[in-house]
Amino acid sequence: MDTWTLNPCYLYRTSPVGCPHTFGEHVKSPDVTLTDVVFYFSVFADNCNAPLVSSLPHSSFQSSSQSSVGYAAHNAKLNRRDGAGGWSPMVTDQEPWLQVDLREQMEVTAVSTQGRYDSWDWVSGFLLLYSDSGRAWKQYRQEDGRIVGNVNSEAVVQNKLSHPVRTRFLRFVPLDWNPSGWMGLRVEVYGCSYKSYVADFDGRSSLLYRFNQKSMSTVKDVISLRFKSHQMEGVLLHGEGQRGDYITLELHRGRLDLYLNLAAKIWLGSRRVAVTVGSLLDDQHWHSVHMERFNRQVNLTVDAQTSSFQTRGDGHSLDVDYELSFGGIPLPGKPGTFLRRNFHGCMENLYYNGINVVDLAKRRKPQIHSVGNVTFSCSQPQLVSCTFLSSSSSFLSLPPPRPPASGGFSARFQLRTWNPDGLLLSLQLHPGPQTLELQVSGGRLLLGLHGSGRHRSEAPTGESEREQPIRAERITCRAADHLYSSGSPIPSFQGCMQLIFINGQPMNLSLVQQGLLGNYNELQLDTCSIKDRCLPNLCEHSARCSQTWTSFSCDCSGTGYSGATCHNSIYESSCEAYKLSGSSSGFYFIDPDGSGPLGPTQVYCNMTGELWASRHLWLRSTGRKLTAKTSYRSAASAEQLRAIVSGSEQCQQEVVYSCRKSRLFNTRDGSPLSWWLDRDGERRSYWGGFLPGVQQCSCSLEENCVDMNYFCNCDADTDAWANDTGVLSYKDHLPVSQVVVGDTNRTGSMAVYSVGPLRCYGDKSIWNAASFYQESSYLYFPTLQAELASDISFYFKTSAPSGVFLENQGLKDFIRVELSSPSAVTFSFDVGNGPAVLAVKSHLPLNDRQWHYVRAERNVKEASLQVDQLPLRFLQAPADGHLRLRLSSQLFVEVSVSFDRESSVTYTFQEPFSVMQNRSSQASSVSTDSRAREDVAFSFVTSQRPAMLLTVSTFSQQYIAVILARNGSLQIWYHLQTDRSPDVFSPALNNLADGRLHRIRIHRVGKNLYIQVSPEKYTLSSDAELILIRSLTLGKVLQAASKGFIGCLSSIQFNHVAPLKAALTNRGSSLITIRGPLVQSNCGALAESTSHTLQGETHTSGGEGEGEGPSVHQNRWSSTREASVYINTF
After folding, report:
1. Which of 786, 1010, 1053, 1122 has a CA between 20 and 30 Å from the CA of residue 908?
2. Where does the record place Polar residues bias (predicted)?
């Protein structure tokens, strides 16, 4: 069924205008003006997911090579068995790729992959490139670049693109494949066609959209377009008005700048301030721009990056006179003359407030005026680039073309890199053993000439060192690993090059790729793979980001923070923390939210709390109501004050109202004459000493008012000076932000109002504690917000040998801190790059009932773990790995569990159910198959064999068993038909009882069984489903003579059920049966501590065959089936 969404567009009084991506054909733009605009919503079906490859002809497929005719590229259609059942390249192909031509520009939303039919050939990871022409390619970037592929030859894996790609050509570049086989690929692409309106600007042209009236005033603007260019500079859009309003959208140094002003005064000599978004936008590939403005609020999006900001000026409308120009800013009265550099490139689907500007221009409508040569097809040249991937081994070696008749040598090329140093060109001169070198050094170009004695002379680029003719024997854009100049190694160039001309002749890189010209190493042709690692800026707290080709770094100077990403505050969070460190009273910077977004602020600490002082406000009779804002001597913002108050044990603020004939509450209707505003701007009329809502003063509470007929001294309304003094202590209302004094308009009325310092005491985060008295105790918190960075710190004391401090999980990602042994704390997490573990071991026990400090931090650059004063442990993050930690569950305490031979955990299903109702949680799998299926996953560590790991049993005497045989090999038993023998599979023949952590995943669809540890697909004798599942058991099955299990089990999942988690958090439930001792443990730490004792160890017990099944024979299973139904495993 289609999903219906609402798409904002515009409707004019005459007829509707077209909107991008509406359902069906675009409605042609009528002859309308920008007056009388009515906003509406167009409804369209979001169904851009049709298969695009299955109907393509053979000619739409190309590849770098093919193993033989049967492995040709055109056999690579999903679920097809043509030829050899898919595409496979030659074994000698060092840069394999499969290319698909969609025949026209399409919008691509997803891709699916499959291995070669009935084989051991599949691709487990790949890059996806796209191109308009099939020559210049751009990489589709996910978080870590590569896209997850297949784990076997038959299952289909679909990857939905986080942002659609509009392209004609797609190229699949394998990165990883089955190590026991070879690359095999079948593909499908999903998407839809779309309508394109294109205009080509040659750098001397523009389109003018002219209004039918002198000025156009709008409070809301929506501008969207796509563009591509190879120029770094150029105006995309410009409009201005006589009152000083203007809007300019332009490329500057490869980034997009937006200048927007609403009625702000521009002083002579003042500079216009731009909002800058995007980077590397001059790469000759399409980029999407979308700008929305409502009043002064603006959202500007380029590709996937959005910047939100408030415009300059006091106005709320944009007043533009006469016209808007696209592609340049023409000078009035001088056709063809422009004030700034024009845009040189193509624009597509250019919409201004719902008006399709290109469509109007193409149909020569009168409101569009064309300046210069604007055409309506994109004819921009496709510049073919190459990428030097390695700073140590990349090179491109070319034979020199014939020199010009005048002799000499010339080289011309464009380059782009982040690295400050690298050798660009090395040329062997003839005659004589001399070498000419061109390099980047410290970000500047240097030209050097080397003789046989390694003497080096340099000249500024563009000047000749010597004037004798130079004849090139070989041109090499490289440096050898140990090429030395002046005694120092020169790194190879790492970056992109294009438009390479030697002696005035262009170098055809396609011939290089085909092996017909020169040779190369570690070179990626047809694409520039440069990546801006500082966009978005992953440095926190406004720190400056700098980068090289492979990494980025953060300059924390002046931010008040430290660490790899400037995450850690260098200041304490409260005066209480300074007091604990032995500091004396004085002025200090505190950071009330630690590593959060609020910065540090200076306060005075007298070691009982924080203090801010305010001015006294003297208010005399003026005949009107007086309002005064409180001014705090601290530079703290309202958000910082709120954080300080919220984190303190208690806060208070004294207020003093001195009066002469100036009342507070003494009115006939009880309305207050004076009041104050709290930190949220809410009106408060209670006075110091009373709780909110009571219009009284402290003298009433203390029963000492000067006139007991009134609740405040000032309400007595005498000619003598009096005062009402009290302390405000309700934290949620502090600090006082504003005071309003009303009764000063009578003759002789005077009032002096004083707001005292805000004083806060204590720190709620320091002396709070929670006690856990049993293994199943836990606390729930909201999901940890830790996508890019997080830090966790706490004190603990315990006598237990192990236990989990905290854990938060996602679908696959997790983060966990635990006491893994009496003397070790472990910090583990997985952001998609595989589990990472940091451990700090102490030479003294940590379960000594004394307080110990733990701090764990993880960011995109590194992870660290600190325990007490022990050495800090670090773990570097992979350079191009996953960045975001995606968590979904609540933050809570959960444990892995260690078993002994008599231990077991049984989870009894509450009611019989069919696994047909439980869909696989793998979102990447594409299948409409409704056959019976199971999805089982768990991790374990053991050094004991044989062992019973997991058993699932049904009311109909079916069962599944996962065991370790006597030789430590994994065995899977499936007994689906009671009148037949069970199916037994051994996917891993090596010994898994090796003390290491192993992850097992079993997936069944019908008769097909897939096991993660093996590339092979197994076939069951029956496709029957499990009918009426009764229980799942971990560990020893009673009355089955099994050996049980000794070791650690964790992360257990059966379809939608997590039995171990349910067992530990629901003890006492009738659905859970636990037998024998269970001890909280960490499987990863257990694996680390036991693996070194198992190296070289052999198992000598038991003399029966290597392939024997569970610790009981098949007939023994038959005789104990009824007993196994009632006993669960852990």
Report:
1. 1010
2. 1089-1101
Task: Give the DSSP letter string of 512-575.
Answer: HHTTSS-EEESEEESB-----TTSS--SSTTPEEEE-SS-EEEE-TTTTEETTTT-EESS-SSH
How many C-beta atoms lie closer than 10 Å to residue 1085's C-beta?
25
Here the tokens at position 161 are 């693109």
More confident residue, 852 or 924: 852
pTM: 0.69
Going by their DSSP bridges, the two strands 255-261 and 385-388 should be labelled as unpaired
- Tell me the average pLDDT across 66-86: 93
For the segment 1077-1129, what is each residue's pLDDT rounded down to a tens digit?
766 555 644 554 444 433 333 333 333 333 333 333 333 222 222 221 222 22
Contact between residue 423 and residue 492 where contact means Cβ atoms under 8 Å apart:
yes
Rg value, the chain, Cα: 37
pLDDT at res. 1054: 84
- Nearest Cα residue to 841 out of 825, 856, 855, 852: 825
Domains of the chain: 50-193 (2.60.120.260), 198-265+272-371 (2.60.120.200), 385-525 (2.60.120.200), 533-561 (no CATH), 612-761 (2.60.120), 770-893 (2.60.120.200), 901-911+931-1076 (2.60.120.200)
Tokens linked to 84: 């050899």
**Tens digit of each residue's pLDDT (9 = 90 or more) over 332-343:** 654 544 567 899
pLDDT tens digits for 360-387? 999 999 999 999 999 999 876 667 889 9
Phi, psi of 656 (to 5 degrees): -130, 125
Q: Would you state the structure tokens that stand for residue 248, as one six-digit string?
A: 């300019």
Q: How far is CA 457 from the centre of its chain?
A: 48
CA gap 801, 822 in Å, rounded: 5
Find the farthest-apart pair of alpha carbons in the chain and give their distance in angstroms, rounded: 115
